[in-house]
Each structure stands twice: as C-alpha cells, then as structure tokens.
Design a protein that fits this description.
The chain has seven helices and ten strands. It has helices at residues 48-56, 84-102, 115-118, 147-168, 184-194, 233-240, 278-286; strands at residues 4-12, 18-26, 32-37, 59-64, 108-113, 131-135, 170-171, 182-183, 220-225, 249-253. Strand 1 (4-12) and strand 2 form a beta hairpin. Helix 4 (147-168) packs antiparallel against helix 5. The longest helix is centred in the middle third of the chain and has 22 residues, at 147-168. It is globular and about 50 Å long. The relative contact order is 0.15.
C-alpha cells in the first residue's frame, strides 16, 4: 500500500492560461512542500519516480508542464508564443501559489532541474521559498563547453533552432532527443541566453525589467555531475554569478562513486539513479 496519493489538476496563471500539474500527497505527517521546476521541454512525468520518493518521505510535491509543453500545450505548438521568461514569470509563480494553498503553513522548497532552477529569480514570490536544491542548473554557456560537445551545441543552438523555426514554425527538439517540441519564442530565447554570459542576464533591461536575482539569499544547493557536458563547473559558476546575494553550497557527483553508468544532465531523476536521491533528502531535512 502506497504512503501517498496523487491528484491531477489545472493551475490558472495570472494571464488565465491553464497549465497541467500533478500533486503528491503524503500520508505521513507533512515535513514540507516542494515545487519541482522542470528542465526546458521536459514533461512532468520524467519527475514522477522522484516525486513519489519525496512523498513517501513526508513531503507534499507538485510537478507541472510549462505552457507550450506536454499537457500544457493548447492548440498547435507552432501557434504557441510561450517563452522561457514567461515560464519563470507566470507559470512557476502560479504553481507555487497552488502549492501553498494545497499545503498551508509549512516550509516550501524548490527542486529545480536545469531551467527549473535558472528561472527562480523571475518568480515574484520566490522570497517565500525556504530553500533551493538545483540539479544540472547552469548558464549552459556554449563557450565553456568542451570542444567536441561545443560543436554539437553550436549546431543545435545556432543552426538547427533557426532553421527549424523557419521551416516548421517551432523547434523540433525531439528529433535530436532534446525533449518535447519547443515553441518558437522559447527556443529563440534559449539560444540567445546560452550564447551569452549569465544566461537570463542577457535579457536584463531588455525584456526583463523586474527580477529577484539580486535579492535571493536563501540557502541553496547546486548539484552537477562530472559527465554533464552542459552544466559543467564553469557554467554552474557562471549561473551562480547572477545570484549576487547567494552563498550557495555546491556538489559535483561522479557516476563511478555510486555504481552508475552515467548521470549526465538528465539521469539524476531516473529511478535507476535513486541511490543519489538521499542528497536531496538530506538537504530538505536540514532546512
């Protein structure tokens, strides 16, 4: 018999856009509540095993699909005007508000995967978080990648994205194993930010006129893996430089230390990698 149960719902954002979410309710005494922020183009089902683990250990959890992705896509992807910026400014804050309503008067944590941690400074309510635990969260700056992977990244960002947008009206990321098809604006912004220092910082004073990157000082843990070509140490440091008041803890994992074939950018949340999940649990129990 399970120690938790699940409900599916729609969360209404400030602009009335409804996004799909899954909530995990622990049957144990509630220890806290967790917002899982997804990576770019990654559906919430990817985090189901990890969310179940957290719920089994007494935490309320909510996962969601960003607008234009998975079950939060309304109509055709080529008609979606969703961007990374609106994911941080509208989607994540709305889901966080839903988390607070569902699990009132407790501690609130963000567990961010890649973009899910990068965008936290765009959330108008981010200061209500108790802590942040990020995995594979970095600026993704192309120039900091290894030579071989940089060639692949430049091809995807600077050739595939523009051409795919031109010919199809959106980015067919799934063709290259890069998650769900991406709305044109989201892919364009992803390209712009990964070609710049400080990722989201590239839009400060342009499309982003209000943010909390200079205000967030809550405890944070930033975890990456040695075999992650994207969120390498240099790119993690580049992203951290945007959080000017943060004093983060960092941890770099080696798959060999845990008997795993790989961790990379995606495998932390895989059921096969649950030997790693105690790192998140220990962090939550400390905060």
């Amino acid at each position: 018999m399970s120690d938790f149960y699940i409900t599916e719902s729609k969360v209404t954002c400030v602009d009335q856009y409804a996004i799909a979410a899954t909530t995990y309710f622990p049957k144990l005494d509630l220890k806290g509540a967790i917002l899982i922020g997804p990576a770019t183009g990654i559906k919430r089902q990817v985090y189901a095993s990890f969310a179940s683990f957290l719920a089994e250990n007494g935490y309320g959890v909510i996962t969601f699909d960003n607008r234009g992705i998975g079950d939060s896509l309304i109509g055709s992807v080529k008609e979606s005007d969703s961007s990374l910026q609106c994911w941080g400014e509208k989607d994540m804050p709305a889901v966080f508000e839903q988390l607070k309503l569902t699990f009132p008067e407790t501690k609130y944590h963000l567990i961010g995967h890649s973009a899910g941690g990068q965008l936290v400074g765009l959330m108008h309510n981010a200061l209500e978080l108790t802590s942040i635990f990020n995995f594979a969260c970095s600026s993704g700056q192309l120039k900091n990648m290894s030579t071989l992977y940089s060639i692949k990244a430049h091809f995807f960002m600077n050739l595939f994205i523009p051409l795919s947008n031109l010919f199809f009206g959106h980015t067919k990321s799934q063709w290259l194993g890069m998650g769900e098809p991406l709305p044109k604006a989201a892919a364009q912004q992803w390209r712009e930010w990964c070609n710049s220092e400080g990722y989201v910082k590239a839009s400060f004073g342009k499309t982003i006129h209000s943010h909390l990157y200079d205000d967030l000082s809550i405890p944070s843990m930033w975890v990456n893996a040695i075999d992650d070509e994207i969120a390498n140490d240099a790119n993690v440091a580049d992203m951290l430089s945007v959080f000017t008041k943060s004093t983060p803890e960092t941890l770099t994992l080696s798959s060999a230390d845990y008997g795993l074939e790989e961790i990379g950018h995606m495998k932390f949340f895989s059921r096969k990698s649950q030997v790693l999940w105690f790192h998140a649990l220990k962090w939550l129990e400390r905060h």
